[in-house]
Amino acid sequence: MSSESWTQRYSAALMNTFGPPKLILERGEGCRVWDVDGRSYVDFLGGIAVNTLGHGHPALVDAVTTQLGTLGHISNFFASTPQIELAERLLALAAPDTDGRVFLCNSGAEANEAALKMTRRTGRTHVVAMEDAFHGRTMGSLALTSKQAYRTPFEPLPGDVTWVPYGDVDALAAAVTDQTAAVVIEPLQGEAGVNVAAGDFLAAARAITTDHGALLWLDEIQSGMGRTGRWLASHAAGVTPDIVTLAKGLAGGIPIGACIGFGDAGRLFEPGNHGTTFGGNPVAAAAALAVIDTIEKDGLLEHAVAVGERLRSGLVADARVTEIRGSGVLVGLTLAGVDAPAVVAAAQDAGWIINATGPDRVRFAPPLVVGLDDVDAFLAAWPSILDAAQGSAA
Q1: How confident is the model at residue 273 (pLDDT cuts 50, 70, 90)?
Q2: Full-model pTM
Q3: CA angle, corner 170, sides to 244 and 328, nearest 5?
């Protein structure tokens, strides 16, 4: 059956939350996927920073298969060994030698929803968030997301939220008071096009929140789990937050999320305060452990740094790229004189999957296992992709 036929069936059966799909994909292997028409594409988006180990990685397949054949779902009346082991590993990776506790859930929005509820346990309600932030689509996480087009159809939204310009220390200091429950920051703003704050912003946020008795909450859903060449992007700033939220690449494509609280924040929840049916299930936990083990064993943190440097230096070599941003294999750029959605379409025609985050912004988030040969092949095709995008607009 052709892509056209599958697309018609999709439109007749699924809600129109995403618009028509760009492709109907059938299978994947490594950094490559195939559509139902048999055409292959190199995946430089990785499920939007999710497919840490690419597609069909043997370690992930084996972990999920073995665990599902042993123990699948058990409910939160009980615990499993993978759940406990994963919580221990996450604490050790996120903040070694720091007391903490983990709540496991199913997605980034759920992790942020849990974190927002944790902030209410402080007895305060005011939260300071960043302009251009994206934290999810649930009502609570949407209340922290600044984009008005996402918010307006669902207002009024919960919470007392103040937005400040991303990276503006003075604005942040002016917004935080002794009534502020938390400040929430993405170390890199992925959905905004991979915005990167100045090096001292997270350290300043740590100092400001501490001074006012507020929680520092870092949303590392897109930037965490090795994507920037560190387990957490915030490690580069040497900052330990009160709350970290993770998801996306944590289990390499198996749905999972994690909300980590350090120190007193890790003890804010009490029995009955929060819950989840599927969160922390043995299969997802086993998948996450396999991802962590593979990143460590195969040196993928160092690899992400090398690949990212090669990708950024090659992309910006074209004069139509006016700014390059990011770290590791989370890369964003700004274009001049070229429409970003047209670039995405031209890249797809040429067999590459990338993403536009605005009219002049393109995002790359390939799997951590992406090879330098694939990067070099893309960079060789990049000028012609830009040419094709310009030609389509003429």
Answers
A1: very high
A2: 0.97
A3: 45
Q: Is the dihedral of CA 279, 283, 289, 295 positive or negative?
A: negative
**What is the token pair recorded at 261?**
């609280």
If you search the block for the tokens 């439109």, which residue do you land on?
Answer: 11
50 has pLDDT over 70: yes
Residue 219 is among the residues annotated as catalytic for this protein = yes
Name the β-bridge partners of 195.
189
CATH 3.40.640.10 residue window(s) in the chain: 60-297
Give alpha helix (H) positions in 176-318.
201-212, 282-297, 300-315
What backbone phi and psi angles, to 5 degrees, belong to 370?
-60, 140
- The CATH label, of 3.30.390.30, 3.10.129.10, 3.40.640.10, 3.20.20.30, for the domain at 60-297 is 3.40.640.10
Concatenated DSSP letters for 270-300? Answer: -TTS---SSTT-HHHHHHHHHHHHHHHHTTH
Q: Write the pLDDT tens digit of every residue in 290-332.
A: 999 999 999 999 999 999 999 999 999 999 999 999 999 999 9
Number of C-beta neighbours around residue 30 at 10 A: 18
Which residue from 247, 379, 382 is spatially nearest to 308, judged by alpha carbons? 379
Identify the three-state secondary structure at position 356. Answer: strand
Indicate if 117 belongs to the active site: no
Distance between alpha carbon 72 and the CA centroid of its chain, in Å?
26
**Catalytic status, residue 134:** yes
Residue ranges, CATH 3.90.1150.10, the chain = 3-56+299-393
Chain-wide mean pLDDT for the chain?
97
Q: Which of 43, 219, 242, 374 is catalytic?
A: 219
How many angstroms separate the CA atoms of 72 and 226, rounded?
Answer: 27
pLDDT exceeds 80 at position 394:
no
Quote the percentage of the chain above a pLDDT of 70.
Answer: 99
Per the residue annotation, which of 43, 103, 132, 134 is the catalytic one? 134
Q: Give exposure, 131-167, as e/b (b: 16+ Cβ within 10 Å).
A: bbbbbbebebbbbbbbeeeeeeeeeeeebebbbbebb
CB 197 within 8 A of CB 168: no
Three-state SS for 225?
A: coil
The catalytic position among 132, 248, 262, 378 is 248
Per CATH, the number for 3-56+299-393 is 3.90.1150.10
Q: In the structure encoding, which two tokens stand for residue 257, read together?
A: 């999320």
